[in-house]
Each structure stands twice: as C-alpha cells, then as structure tokens.
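INFO  loader      accepted 1 record
INFO  loader      residues=341
INFO  predictor   begin
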Amino acid sequence: MELAYIPSPSRGVIHLGPIPLRGYAFCIIIGVFVAVWLGNKRWLARGGRAGTVADISVWAVPFGLVGGRLYHVITDYELYFSEGRNWVDAFKIWEGGLGIWGAIALGAVGAWIGCRRRGIPLPAYADAIAPGIALAQAIGRWGNWFNQELYGKETDLPWAVRITSSLDGRVPGDYHPTFLYESLWCVGVALLVIWADRRFQLGHGRAFALYVAAYCAGRFWIEYLRVDDAHHILGLRLNNWTALIVFVLAVVYLVLSAKKRPGRETVVEPGADDSATDGAEADAEADAEADKSTETSAEDAKAEDDKGKAEDKDPAESESESGAESTSQSASASESAGKKS
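INFO  predictor   done
INFO  writer      dumping tokens
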C-alpha cells in the first residue's frame, strides 16, 4: 500500500499567452537573486560597498550559464550530435542541462573580470558569495523536478518521486528524489560555510574552498544514486571522479592557504572606507553649519526683540525720563556756577 510519494508536475511550462513560463528557468532566476542578495549582505559586513556584488554578478552569471551549458553538452555530446539528434537542441538551455562544474569554473572567470575592473581581490568576493551559491544550487535543483529528470534508483520510500513521463527513455515509476537530496545538502552547506566563517574568520578564499569541498562530498554519494545515462571511468560516473578530484583540490587549498595567509583581508574594496569617512565628515560639517545658523538666528531674534521693546515703551515714561535728565543737568550746572562764584 502506497502511503506517500512526491508527485511530479504534469508539465514544466505554463503559457501566459504567447510567453512560455518555464519552471526550470524560474528556479535558476530565483537562485541567482538569492545568491546576489545574500552575497551583498556578507560583502557589506566585510566593509564593501552596496551594489558591488550585483555589479560583478553581471559578469559572473552569464559566464556561469555558458560554462554550465558547455560542460553538459561536452560530457553528454551524444544527446545533441549523435545520429537522429538535432544539434540545435544544445542551445535550448530551458530544457535542462547545466553542469555545476562548468558553471563555477567559467563563472569564476567572469567574476575575475568584474573584480579586476573594480580593483577587488577575487578570493574576498568568492568568500562573500559562497553561501549564496550553495543556496542558488538548492533552489535550482527544483528545476530538475519540473523537468522530471536526474532522479535516482527505484525505491518504495514514502518520499520517493513519481516519474510519469516516458520521454527520452524514462520509465514511469517511483525513484529516489536526488534533486531533493542535493537541494537539502546545499542548504546544509550554506549554513556550514556561514557558521565556519563567523567562527574561524575565514579569508583569502577559504570560505569558498570550504563550500566547494562540502558540496563535492555530498555530490559524490548523491551522484552514485542516479540512474540517468552517464560516462563511466573505472566503474565510477564521470561526475563522481570530478567531485573527488575537486574535493581534494579544495582541501589542499584550505590547508595551504591557512598556513601561508592566516586570518582574513582587512580591506576588501579599496576606497570603501574612505567614502564612509568622507560621508561622516560631510555630515559633521553639515551639522556645524546648522548649529552656526541656529546661533545666528537666535542673536537676530534677540536684537529684534530688544528693538521691539524700545518701540513699545510708553511716551509719558519717555517724557518723564527726558525731564528728569534735563533737571539733573540743570542742577549740575548751577552747582558748578556756585563753586566758581
């Protein structure tokens, strides 16, 4: 008796008039926005400027998409260039097929270009964006669910995903939801990197290296569950070998970097601190000008008040004061005359 399973969507695209809205594309787009949002927060916390992460992402994201597609097409070339296939399908990225290895590799090239244009060290940027990339992968993996692809071996577990499509050699049935496993693993990787970065003050690319190593560890066992066609080398899928090699490289980088460049960068974006200082000085000058203006206004108000009091004085009092002053002057004159005589 079936207690539960994860149903697959009947279709991965909804048409809004002539415009197709594809679930796979939405997952990728949402993932990119989340990565940029979290990367910006972490960049600001490191002392960088707001908007820098987004500006560099303008270079990194297109390069990453091209790199991810190239890796997929090259490693699964028979899907596009074998007999009976249409090579034009290699450009239909919305139908699925992005290799994370190519996306990270070529995306790093785009990020390097963006960083170089702004005078920013690439390792510092990579550390800031690393958890966001993991979350973007977690969201992007749900695109495979929309396309009913990249599932694992058959299972009767209550969280099995039910495949209903029979296209491209699929066999309807219940399978391990490897898209879900990898999505949850990537969320864990993001949390791990955030925690380790706060705890150990990771710098010089070590937060990014930790993300790579942790992701590869999960990808290795998840890849082992998949049943889609893949090239094998010595009994292991190509992506298993890639995950193993990249894992070793990431760990080696972590160890060597910690020895050669301990701690983290004190300045991640040249000029960011100066702009903050200039802003503070400008605010202080504005406050001083406001205080001076307030004092001047108070003095002017006091002068106007004294003038008003003088003008409002009773005429009788003024005449009395004038008469008293004249009498005093006459008395003084008489006294002087008496002394002389």
